[in-house]
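Troubleshooting: if your tokenizer reports a length mismatch, compare your output against this known-good record of 112 residues.
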Amino acid sequence: MVSPARWLACVGLALLAGCGSGAPAAGSAPDAAVSRERFIELYAALRLAARETRDTLAFEVKKREILERHGVGEGALLEFARAHGGDIPAMVELWDSLDARLTLPDTLDPPT
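Known-good structure output:
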């Protein structure tokens, strides 16, 4: 039987692996601080890109383009999550804002 600590470590590693190589995007500043609004903006752009692509390699290309365009590395996003993840009320508010941003286009009436 697998211990809970080992199981959590495996899940954590799998999640980090899903984020890509962990290397900063070319030309980005991985140590630059990311604000709450910028985190929401970038994460929303990444989620929309993931929706648009079915291929992992195509998503990786789009992800690098998005991060490079904003001058942010993956490390900065992970650091934001680590720094603020313990503030549950703030993170709930952040995810609600992100969810609203991602669902807004879906709730608009199509043009007639």
